[in-house]
What does this fold into?
Amino acid sequence: MRLSEQVNALLWSWSETLRALRRRAALGPLLVYAAAQTAALLALAFFAYPPLSAVVAPALKWRFGERALHYPNNLFVLRPALGEVDVPLSVLFGSLTAGAAAIAFAAFYHGRRERFAASWRAASPCYLPLVGAAAITTALSQVISRVPLSFWGHLAEDSPSRFRLLRLVTIALVIAVQALMVYAIPAIAAGKRRFGPAVLGSLRLAVRQPVVTYLIVAAPAALELFPAWLARESDVIAIRFSPELLIGVMLIWIAVILLASYATLGAATRLFVHSTDDGVTDTAPSKEA
Amino acid sequence: MGRTTGPRLSMAVLVLALLSAAALVVGCGSGEIRDRYEAEKMAWQAGKLARAMSTNPELATDEMRARVEEGYAAIVRRFRPPTPGETLTRQASDIASISGQSRLALAALALDRDDPGKALELYRSVRDSYSFDRALSIDAYLGAGNALEIADQWPEAVRTYEELLADWRPAPSQAEAPDLRILRTPVRVALGYTARRDAAHASEWYERAYAYYDRWISDWDGSPTAALALDMKGEAYVQQGRFREAADAYELLDERYGTEDNRGALWLRLAEIYASGLGRPAKARDYYLMVTQAYAGEVAGATAEIAIARLNIEDGEYAAARIRLEKTLEDFKDEKAIAATALQYLALSHELEGAWESALPRYNALAQEHPTTLYGLAAPLHVARHYRDAGAAEAADKALARAVEHYERVIHDYASSPAELAARSHLVEALLDQHEWGKAADKLVETAGLFAGSEAAPGMLLQAAELYRGKLGDTAKATRTLETVRATYAGTPAAKAADDRLRSMTE
It folds into this structure.
């Protein structure tokens, strides 16, 4: 695919996603996931209150030490704690909500409105392959982002500029992994494919249009720079204003993740549906989806 | 659909109910985590405002003080102190500690409000309830002693300090760092008696201090406590004016516990004792030279260089002094205190040598480059007084006018800083030298109003009243000023002096 065609495809997929957003199509499942993240965030923030203190407090102590059980330290560890909770949550629950959203997107792009409950019902039978695709993506992303740091983490003190470069490279690689797998969820949920063909199909489609695929993941992910900057200023926010504002920062983060997921999933489903409608892939998508 | 939804819903409800019940049963015992968390949150909020007030005391308002006090009072109301002998869990111990710290903070606020009685009550409550918490208990003993001193109950204060020394060792164990405040307590009592002109008791307490230090020096030989006790013993001898014994103590400290980290300060102290206390400048010079060699390029080395230069100046070796001072100034031009001191001695060396034309630019540079240092502030007035003493009245007048201008600029540029108060004090001196009695008196009243909390404020008002009455003949203004002192600083020696003067004016 030529670069100009890829740019056209990118702009078209985003305009289609925007059209879906205006009609609030496929928003329900992603809102449910954001609600789950919010519940996890509130559980971490209010860990000290029964009955949460019986479950969340020992978990916080196990992962972040005794210090995390004291005010306002627990609010300072919200970001890494939510990051750790989000890993299993995104695999076990996020994969299902993404699948339901992909089905709703696909229906919208085919000119139908999929009801919230119907998209859940349609995604439920694909739960295991959806979890599989999400698990592979998450596992690879974790390996890429953590392994280099375990080898070259000392650069943070020895050579901050090299450390920043290392972080940039790992982020670029994580985005590349997510881009290679980005069509797997729409293929499983909306295309009703089995796990193997869905993953292979995603890789083929990503390789055929690398620029557009990379950008539909990278551009929305860049939105996270704002809450990431806010989180870096945690000390200032807590000391000059109030530590409780850090909960607000994390809520902004969840909202940004919701928007970014919507943009990525909407654009990926649009491109996937287009490729199947044009007969680009080997197997035609199931119209029942 | 009806066949499958019913059982699924029932199962879901059952699972949820079981989970909630389990969580509630387990969670009931976790109220302590919540209480500790809430105590920490309340302490953080009160502490945040308290820290802001202590960072910028001039911006602290009564409303802010009331909020801080209410914050700590809320903690004290909600979290009771532990009862003696009570076994505490980790959380309960933390809560008790926060409650105790809040009581101490409230006591400190009560002292600020001139309410030593309330402060004493709080300090005693902590002392009696927190024997399990070494840090809190020691704070409470010292706070109670201080409150009793402020309330002018000196014998009670001494008893409190005696109890502290009997109840708490200087450190929890030989290996741990000692609490300087405990080790300093005997000397503090001796100094208290000295201030009350009770030489017999002061002497008795110095002897008790030496015995106390000797006990820890021998019992915990080789420990950080023994080292600090030896240091304190030297300090006590200096306070008592027994410089020979002080030098012996510090030399033993150097021999037994000297390290690269503490030797610089130790040798400087020894040099100072030999120079000022024992009148042996040659020995002092040896110590200063040791510092310059071992700590070249460091602040301690520069301090020693300046001290040797000072000895050179005293011996009339001005050229040798200037070589050291010029080099120090060059190497430490970014260290304000060092640079200002070096510049001051450079100017002084020229002045004492009789080369005023060389000294003047140094004094001017001192005033311009280091306007907030004591030497920098003193320089313009010193120049004016040099001309006055030399009989150059016209030059003295011009220099005084320049000094007044300089101090006014410093006051403007460094408003609300300690330098402002010092500059105001110098400005008053310059105005008095100009015989501007009215301006000087008004400036004193203005400064006392701006720095009402400073120790110098009542003295300034008394001086202003004297100027109004003695130099300007304005008895009404003098009376108003003295009445202000009597009302604002009631119960202090200044208020008594104001009262005496008012009485003498009416008689």
